[in-house]
TrEMBL record:
Residues 1-18 form the signal peptide. Keywords: Membrane, Signal, Transmembrane, Transmembrane helix. This is FZ domain-containing protein. The chain crosses the membrane at residues 172-194. The keyword Membrane applies. The keyword Membrane applies. It comes from Magallana gigas.
Amino acid sequence: MLLYASVLLIATVILSKTEQVYSPFTSTCNAAKLEPEATCPSSRSEWNRRAKQKQCTDVVLSCKKKIALKYHCLINTWKNLTLSVCAVPTYINGFRCPEFNIKGSNIQPHYDTNCSIDIPACPFRYNSQDVYKYRSCYVLNMENSAILNTKPTTKSELETNDGDNFFGVNLRILWCILVLVILPVASAVSFTLYKKHCDHSQVLDATIKNDHKTTTDILSEKSTLFSEKENTMIEI
């Protein structure tokens, strides 16, 4: 019973933490105003126009850190959506495209991309706000999502379409399966050990009783022989 309660408590804690990580996106210390974007800017003037509409400079972060957030339009981790977000500008290295990772709430290189094939090609290192120059960074992988033809309208839908959330959902399912498997196995092992203990105790008790009975019989037999010997001596 104690083992069952312990496993159940651990599973509850893990699932609750997983649920918190993959809850609908809200402002963090590094990013805010995450929304799906049908298309991303292809020029500096268009980038500046959307940045003005986004009003990232007006964002008040939940942790009250004094960080200057800037407008970005980036692919997500699965490269099946483009997102607009107010985030901290980041230098991207290695001829990669920038992505916005929802789970980590940060901009980082997408290691399955290569913007050096663009014309103009991206440099080895550049600022994430210059990504509009490299159009290959906005080529989406249509095989990764069956709903790309419809634009997500809510933050929940946005998170559901993101690769991070996919792994989060499957992680919760995996833990549920593990709990359902572990509990019966643990119960069966506990019952087997308990039964073996009981059987051993019964054998031990039976052995002790037999030994006691044998000792009693021997003493009784010796007492009888002694009594007979005394009677014989008295008669003589």
